[in-house]
Amino acid sequence: MATIQAAKRALRAQLKQRLAALSDLEKLRQSQAVTRKLLSHHRYQSAQRIAVFLSMSDEVQTGDIIRDIFHQGKLCFIPRYQPRSTHMDMVRLGSLEEINQLPVTTWNIRQPGEEDCREEALATGGLDLVLVPGLGFDKEGHRLGRGKGYYDTFLERYSRHLSEKPYTIALAYQEQICDSIPVTENDFEIDEIICAGALEMPEK
Ligand SMILES: Nc1ncnc2c1ncn2[C@@H]1O[C@H](COP(=O)(O)OP(=O)(O)OP(=O)(O)O)[C@@H](O)[C@H]1O
Ligand SMILES: [Mg+2]
């Protein structure tokens, strides 16, 4: 267990370096390609309730995806994580314009404040699709996040409450695809990865 944690830490550091070397133009190019693929994906097109992250500077940029969610009249949920815990809820974002009014967290991500009473996806019917961020991914669907376990804990709670798993798609830069990712039994497997280039995932 300790070795897996150490291997995760080392890979996180390596991936952060690799991502820091990507130019803004390259990130924009890949983000646009990922967005195009997602918007034409049947899982996205048929989904009504979608969870999407507000991207940090080294993650696939999700602005155009969020715009499309509202444009298509789908429901948009975004993460609200609690600092100093592994707890995260997916709460409803009412409009595109609301984003700029949300407070910024210590991770420099916008999210609704604790006191801001919002519809929670788990309480009102779950999610048809969860778009997952992360630092690294492999073709088996293993994921390395930033080390807090927010998504693992959320998806585990989701399965416990609703007795099913939502469909999960990770959005990744090509540089985030690794040969293999060290995982423990707490790490959920993502169903699919969308990146700018070709990626064959084995059938599950
Ligand atoms: N299902 C779970 N229930 C409770 N705690 C969990 C669960 N899954 C993970 N954790 C906690 O989260 C910690 C970090 O997990 P991990 O190293 O997998 O983070 P991560 O998946 O890379 O991060 P994140 O999901 O926030 O991007 C674990 O050491 C564990 O304590
Ligand atoms: Mg994990």
From TrEMBL:
One of its GO terms (cellular component) is mitochondrion. It comes from Engystomops pustulosus (Tungara frog). ATP binds at K8, R9, A10, L11, R12, R143, L144, G145, R146, G147, K148, G149, Y150, Y151. Signal peptide: none annotated. Substrate binds at L54, E59. It catalyses: (6S)-5-formyl-5,6,7,8-tetrahydrofolate + ATP = (6R)-5,10-methenyltetrahydrofolate + ADP + phosphate. This is 5-formyltetrahydrofolate cyclo-ligase. The keyword Protein biosynthesis does not apply. InterPro entries: FTHF_cligase, FTHF_cligase-like_sf, NagB/RpiA_transferase-like. GO terms for molecular function: 5-formyltetrahydrofolate cyclo-ligase activity; ATP binding; metal ion binding. It comes from the Eukaryota. One of its GO terms (biological process) is tetrahydrofolate interconversion. Its EC number is 6.3.3.2. Keywords: ATP-binding, Magnesium, Metal-binding, Nucleotide-binding. Belongs to the 5-formyltetrahydrofolate cyclo-ligase family. Its cofactor is Mg(2+).
